[in-house]
Amino acid sequence: MPSSQTAEPQFQASSDPLPAAEEAQVTINSKSLREQVYEYLRGELQSGRLVPGSAINLALISKQLGVSKTPMRDALLQLDAEGFVTISPRRGVFVNPVTLDDVRHSYEIVGALEAAVIFSVFDQIENTHIEKMKLNNINLKTALEGDDFLSYYLLNIAFHHVFLELSDNRMLQRIIMPIRQRLYDFPRRRYIKEWELKNCGDHDDLIDAIERGDRNAAVRLWRDVHWSFSVYENYIRQFYF
């Protein structure tokens, strides 16, 4: 991350087109800065230093990071598109709170999309994938027993990715991940162990349906139980509100 003492790269304006190599380098550098600013802002949201409903002091952050308005703007546009902030013309940029309707709608979207992936890739799931899912779920339960919620979070993502990565629908995967981050990662909350153990039970049931070759049971479980707002509403209200 560039510090306020780090000299920001300056690009000389010119009417002449840049050589191809130089133009590519400018693009790479700009992307790198945008990604760094994005990751920094994600960290601030995750830690709770930027709280829901608060305005983001763009001038202060730009000065702290030693970056210009361009990478800051690009990072904020990405966060706005993903639902983490709202850019309000003439008023500023504000951190979005998570409402009960946000959670309900997110569950509906992710449940439908992940279930669609399970349906489409079901015949591609091999024993190696099943064993990976089983091992992940064992490690998830171990992490819960040790109150290691960071490991639990990462292992849970890995469990879902076993079947998600079998899909060639990259657009669908790009839709799912920001929604899941919005649910669980901004800001990071203390997990409810009882709820997460039930989620591990859903994982076991999914593995069982896959081993039995029951595609429809696997889809129904994932859409109508694992990602059901009504099934887990009590835990959801505890977790968020």
The rounded distance between the terminal residues' Cα atoms is 34 Å
| Domain unit count | 2
Radius of gyration (Å):
21 Å
- What is the CATH level 1 assignment of the largest domain? Mainly Alpha
Helix content: 55-70%
* Structural class by SSE content: mainly alpha
Strand content: under 5%
Number of helices: 10
What would the CATH topology of the largest domain be? Answer: Four Helix Bundle (Hemerythrin (Met), subunit A)
**Arrangement of strands in the largest sheet:** 1-2
Mean pLDDT: 85
C-alpha geometry: elongated
How many distinct beta strands?
2
CATH architecture level-2 label of the largest domain:
Up-down Bundle
Oligomer: single chain
In this structure, how is the largest beta sheet organized? 2 strands, antiparallel
Low-confidence parts lasting 5 or more residues at pLDDT below 50? 1-30
Order of helices and strands: HHHEEHHHHHHH
Name the CATH superfamily assignment of the largest domain: GntR ligand-binding domain-like
